[in-house]
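Reopening: 2-methylcitrate dehydratase still failing for me.
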Amino acid sequence: MKMHPVRTHPSADRLPREEQLAWRFAALAVDPVDVEPAVAEMIGNRIIDNAAVAAASIARHPAVSARAQAVAHPTAPGATVFGLAAARRSSPEWAAWANGVAVRELDYHDTFLAAEYSHPGDNIPPILAVAQHRGRSGLDLVRGVATGYEIQVDLVKGMCLHEHKIDHVAHLGPSAAAGIGTALGLDPEVIFQAIGQALHTTTATRQSRKGEISSWKAYAPAFAGKMAVEAVDRAMRGETSPTPIYEGEDGFIAWLLSGPEHVYQIPLPGPGEAKRAILDTYTKEHSAEYQSQALIDLARRMGPLVGDTARVRSIVIHTSHHTHYVIGTGANDPQKMDPTASRETLDHSIMYIFAVALQDGAWHHERSYAPERAARPDTVALWHKVSTAEDPEWTRRYHAVDPAEKAFGGRVVITLDDGTVLEDQLAVADAHPLGARPFARPQYIEKFRTLATDVIDDVEQDRFLAAVAELPDLPAGELHRLTFTVDPARLGDLAATSRGIF
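Support: Ran it again with your exact input. Result attached.
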């Protein structure tokens, strides 16, 4: 890996294209380096993971609405939409939109955390949709996804957005555009222009993850993927982008990030160096914000020691800056303590999540968020006894470069009504690569089959998993096999969401 300094340049500098970050991404996208077997295997895992959570959300309102919009934009050859027959195709940008929402709705797929946050599995829907539409092969898809993950993860390592209240999907637009470019074998000039447009059109504030969190949290990454598809389409037609998009004196760094004096250091593989970033990422065993994963596991471990939670006087979670200020009491969001809050808000309340996991000894993507569960008097009482505190050591470990040091958990201190103090800590979730039960292909398959129960019939599950097993060897034109069909009766009320413009 080589570090690339990136800063603002006055227009008078006429910064050479080859020194611009967007060009470096484009050069990375066209590098013909082979994809390592472990990377190809993990890409297959994440395709399974995305399908699993899409199956679980297939009848939820945001997924139904997005699918209705995709259905209103049929085209040939087109791209598949989760839940619909593979022969029923939509325009690729709308298929990417619908599938992206289905994947993101439950906040239940993969994650990478460093200076910034990300769900790099969001790259897969737009890259797959375009690859299907253009009749590409399994290997083309694998190469494209490897590029998308590499660029998003490297941006997350080197360029923090959230400190400036910019939403993390601003890194997704460029990564998806570059991944599409790789999958299609486009020239670097085209990819360069598409990356610039994708960044320019996918920059938004973090209000989508603050206060009353709405369904837009699921739509935001899908919108970035859709914009990436459209950006590539325009670039292929010869349209250009604002340049330099990152380094311009009125550009991204100068006005939206740390300003003209700041220098960002972005790590990127050199020519001929494998794109391995996906191996640094991790998925979720539980449907909740990633920083809650280890704490859910810790709550399950501590629950039997507590017994009757009515005995609890207080619970303090000592954790990282991010956990405290984004999903903890440091956020100062009263909605995070409100029993009538939306599912999306509860997903970002570690106080609620820890209380329920402590009482139930488990976490479920539907039951744990049910309104009647959130309103249970004993849960509300316990929930309001939970607080978080930033611990500098956990913040240091959150930002550590060494994987053995990097941690996303915390230390929990539970004080009972008789003064007894129970204390335990957990650095990483059980499902993390360094956790107690790391996820590999069998666990991804188990997650898929669990979430697909009563949604996708067994024969269709088997067919989909067999297609993923063949992923690098799928011939051109066979990528439509990487979807699943659901009985129309299980797809939710399409008519109730079809009253829009389209």
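The radius of gyration is 22 Å. If you still see a failure, please send the error message rather than a screenshot.
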